[in-house]
Design a protein that fits this description.
about 325 residues; alpha/beta; Rossmann fold; Dihydrodipicolinate Reductase, domain 2; 2 domains; six-stranded parallel sheet; 14 strands; globular
């Protein structure tokens, strides 16, 4: 069992706490948050429901992340702070010699990412970006099918991610582009990262969107073109009212089949083949959060690098979002 400390107990921190409580590989021994309300056994508001045990009985509670990093019982740190604090606490966690799992987006900018990469040179602990879609069973299966070439090459893909406006964030930080990067970086980066994971860096990026003063790009439609390869389009945003239900999904056209997933429908992967079949292949158990946790924790226990979600790849995804924003604003 790995002793884990969580820095940040807002909505996503509570989500990780509830999921980690179900893991057989970890014990949450400490949490930290500057907001005293977040150190109570109360769920935080967000765009998806938190299910599970979020009690803090027997858990060390700190008002400062720095104090948690000094706790000798903490072997691994999960950073779930607002994005503008990620770089600071990544660097502090590295200096403290902890294994690190940091929420997406890893950093606010590629420039910040280069500072992180410099600090990681020669680091002998596990460092991983919490890009949960890389571990989400339906996305894992889609990638597996595409890579197998069972239905031929991928021709086109469209990914979507939409949410109500995140008015729940502490002090409204999510709606401040200087702190969150806006919807383009906080929300849409999930799909950018998956496309990057699946296909690599595109040869050409086109994008349009809605750029709001202060909030940044709050709705984005992007098109990635690969020379002699597929095209990938993505849309993401949070222009909707607070009761708008979160949804994510994709449609992918291969030479001999189409793949479809819609979280508002049934959560299954639907495969429609050229031969007229409608298949729903079995998916791995759990969700992206539990599976990324178990992967990270197994890397810690086995002393191996977290190659499925490296800092380099996460920073490359941030750089792609930066290119999209430039296209929107050009």
């Amino acid at each position: 069992m790995v002793n884990v400390g969580i820095i940040g107990q807002g909505f996503i921190g509570k989500m990780h706490l509830a999921v980690l409580r179900k893991s057989k590989l970890a014990t949450v021994v400490a949490v930290a948050d500057k907001n005293p309300t977040n150190l109570k056994d109360e769920a935080a508001t967000g765009n998806i429901a938190i299910e599970g045990d979020i009690s803090l009985d027997g858990v060390s509670k700190y008002e400062e992340g720095d104090a948690l990093l000094k706790d000798a019982h903490v072997e691994a740190v999960l950073i779930t702070l607002p994005t503008f604090l990620h770089k600071e606490y990544i660097l502090k966690s590295i200096a403290a010699g902890k294994h690190v799992l940091c929420e997406k987006p890893l950093v606010l900018s590629k420039a910040d990412g280069l500072e992180v990469l410099d600090a990681l040179k020669g680091y002998d602990r596990v460092f991983m970006a919490a890009q949960c879609i890389r571990f989400w069973p339906v996305y894992v299966k889609a990638r597996e099918i595409i890579q197998s070439q069972e239905y031929g090459a991928l021709l086109a893909a469209h990914l979507t991610r939409q949410s109500g406006k995140p008015s729940w964030s502490f002090g409204g930080w999510l709606l401040d582009e200087t702190k969150s990067g806006g919807a383009a970086l906080d929300l849409h980066v999930h799909d950018v990262d998956f496309v990057n994971y699946l296909l690599g860096e595109p040869d050409r990026i086109q994008a349009t969107g809605v750029d709001l003063p202060g909030e940044g790009v709050s709705q984005i439609n992007a098109l990635y073109t690969y020379n002699n390869g597929p095209v990938a389009s993505m849309d993401g945003g949070w222009l909707h009212g607070p009761t708008f239900p979160f949804r994510m999904g994709f449609r992918m056209e291969l030479e001999k089949a189409a793949l479809e997933f819609n979280s508002m429908m049934d959560g299954a992967l639907h495969v429609y083949t050229e031969a007229g079949e409608h298949l729903t292949p079995e998916l791995l158990p759990g969700d992206g959060y539990s599976r990324e946790h178990d992967y990270f924790l197994s890397c810690v226990e086995e002393g191996k690098p977290a190659n499925e979600a490296t800092a380099e790849s996460a920073i490359a995804s941030v750089a792609l979002v930066e290119r999209e924003r430039e296209a929107v604003r050009s």
